[in-house]
């Protein structure tokens, strides 16, 4: 089996500095959740980004804002677009729904859902009053707060990293046919016990794992729980984090037959914490999916992640929060702030100077440096936008300091 790049560095050891001792020895619990591709909200995120990609494939200068709503047998797209591209939206929706797994009538209600899906649209041309200069911010937000830390090689909090990988593993088992009883909808939740080591959050052990997965009716609860433990938990979670006190809630509801839009309404942009850091760090408030690179909700957040990860990978700090503030039609950031939580030998003003020396954070420049005109967005819409090496904002920049 070819290893997916998402897992390429997962089994590497955490980068710890043994010379540091905890200032207080304080420990605490922190929890993050993730959802699978078939979750109704995540389905909408993927559809919105599939629409965006379809426009960018034909016209890289497309301006797209696509929101999606779904419930049993219905998908509604609403938004605005300015593009030379001609896109068959119904085809994009149906293809995306099928790729998620709602494609086969032999697997519960999924095939019936796909065959009766009615994509509808409410689509408008973009307002001519919105400026078009590539160096302008097209749609502003007050701030983008994005961080990085050395809990893992990917510079992601262990809680959200494990939560994503548990969902990914379940989907992998389903797609490969090894566990055909696994259906598209799923949710994971991971609680980790941490120690605060002079501002750096060091994971000690996994306290609790919760897995819920939609399943076919022809498998027993006992078998589901056994396979989730042996083929998912023990494969994904490094053994060093599991002990006799770790708590497991595997399909705690006892049954999960109906999932996705059959059981819940879905909406783009309702999983913004899942998309980022699982509750760690900050968030500017805006969702990512369905928005092209000209919206700093998305491009600004990607740039902030790039900056923060570059600082950590350069050894300038063990943990960083980077805040960038933009305003509509203003080409330069209104403000840039860097916080290192006491994990650096340099003060925060020095780190800010390094950032300003090494990064041009104008939106027009971000688009070019990170290649954000490419149709790469559907792949970001599940399992997190950060911590995945295939994305350009995850490749640290070599810093001059």
Automatic annotation (TrEMBL):
Domain S-adenosylmethionine synthetase N-terminal: residue ranges = 28-108
| Entry protein name | S-adenosylmethionine synthase
So, what pathway does this thing act in? Amino-acid biosynthesis; S-adenosyl-L-methionine biosynthesis; S-adenosyl-L-methionine from L-methionine: step 1/1
Check the record and name the Gene3D superfamilies matching this protein: 3.30.300.10
Q: Which species expresses this protein natively? A: Tetraodon nigroviridis
Q: Which residues form the S-adenosylmethionine synthetase central domain?
A: 148-256
Q: What is the lineage of its organism?
A: Eukaryota, Metazoa, Chordata, Craniata, Vertebrata
Q: What is its EC number?
A: 2.5.1.6
Per the record, what are the reactions this protein catalyses? L-methionine + ATP + H2O = S-adenosyl-L-methionine + phosphate + diphosphate
SUPFAM superfamilies for this protein: S-adenosylmethionine synthetase
Q: Where is the S-adenosylmethionine synthetase C-terminal domain?
A: 258-395
UniProt entry tagged with the keyword Glycoprotein:
no
Provide the alphabetized UniProt keywords.
Answer: ATP-binding, Magnesium, Metal-binding, Nucleotide-binding, One-carbon metabolism, Potassium, Transferase
Q: Which Pfam families match?
A: S-AdoMet_synt_C, S-AdoMet_synt_M, S-AdoMet_synt_N
Molecular-function GO term, any one? methionine adenosyltransferase activity
Cofactor(s) this protein cannot do without = Mg(2+); K(+)
Q: What class of enzyme is it?
A: transferase
Q: Tell me, what does this protein do in biology?
A: Catalyzes the formation of S-adenosylmethionine from methionine and ATP.
- What note does UniProt attach to the cofactor annotation? Binds 2 magnesium ions per subunit. The magnesium ions interact primarily with the substrate. Binds 1 potassium ion per subunit. The potassium ion interacts primarily with the substrate.
Q: Which family does it belong to?
A: Belongs to the AdoMet synthase family.
Q: Which domain of life is it from?
A: Eukaryota
Q: Report any one BP term from Gene Ontology.
A: one-carbon metabolic process
């Amino acid at each position: 089996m070819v290893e997916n790049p998402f897992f390429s560095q997962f089994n590497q050891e955490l980068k710890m500095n043994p010379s540091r001792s905890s200032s207080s020895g304080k420990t605490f619990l922190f929890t993050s959740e993730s959802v699978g591709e078939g979750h109704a909200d995540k389905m909408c995120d993927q559809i919105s980004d599939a629409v965006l990609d379809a426009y960018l494939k034909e016209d890289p200068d497309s301006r797209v804002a696509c929101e999606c709503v779904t419930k049993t047998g219905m998908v509604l797209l609403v938004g605005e677009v300015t593009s030379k591209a001609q896109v068959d939206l119904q085809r994009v929706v149906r293809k995306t729904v099928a790729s998620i797994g709602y494609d086969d009538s032999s697997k519960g209600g999924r095939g019936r859902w796909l065959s009766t899906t009615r994509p509808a649209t409410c689509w408008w041309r973009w307002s001519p009053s919105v400026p078009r200069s590539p160096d302008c911010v097209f749609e502003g937000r007050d701030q983008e707060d994005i961080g990085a830390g050395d809990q893992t090689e990917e510079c992601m909090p262990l809680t959200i990293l494990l939560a994503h990988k548990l969902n990914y593993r379940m989907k992998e088992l389903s797609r490969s046919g090894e566990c055909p009883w696994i259906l598209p909808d799923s949710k994971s939740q991971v609680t980790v016990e941490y120690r605060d080591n002079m501002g750096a959050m060091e994971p000690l052990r996994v306290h609790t794992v919760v897995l819920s997965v939609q399943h076919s009716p022809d498998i027993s609860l006992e078998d589901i729980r056994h396979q989730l433990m042996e083929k998912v938990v023990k494969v994904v979670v490094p053994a060093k984090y599991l002990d006799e006190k770790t708590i497991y809630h595997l399909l705690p509801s006892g049954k999960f037959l109906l999932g996705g839009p059959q059981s819940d309404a879905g909406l783009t942009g309702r999983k913004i914490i899942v998309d980022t850091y699982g509750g760690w760090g900050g968030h500017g408030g805006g969702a990512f999916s369905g928005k092209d690179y000209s919206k700093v909700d998305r491009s600004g957040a990607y740039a902030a992640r790039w900056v923060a990860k570059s600082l950590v990978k350069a050894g300038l700090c063990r943990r960083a929060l980077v805040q960038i503030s933009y305003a509509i039609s203003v080409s330069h950031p209104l403000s840039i702030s860097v916080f290192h939580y006491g994990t650096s030998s340099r003060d925060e003003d020095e780190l800010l100077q390094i950032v300003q020396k090494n990064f041009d954070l104008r939106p027009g420049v971000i688009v070019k440096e990170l290649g954000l005109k490419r149709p790469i967005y559907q792949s970001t819409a599940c399992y997190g936008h950060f911590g995945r090496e295939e994305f350009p904002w995850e490749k640290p920049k070599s810093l001059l300091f």
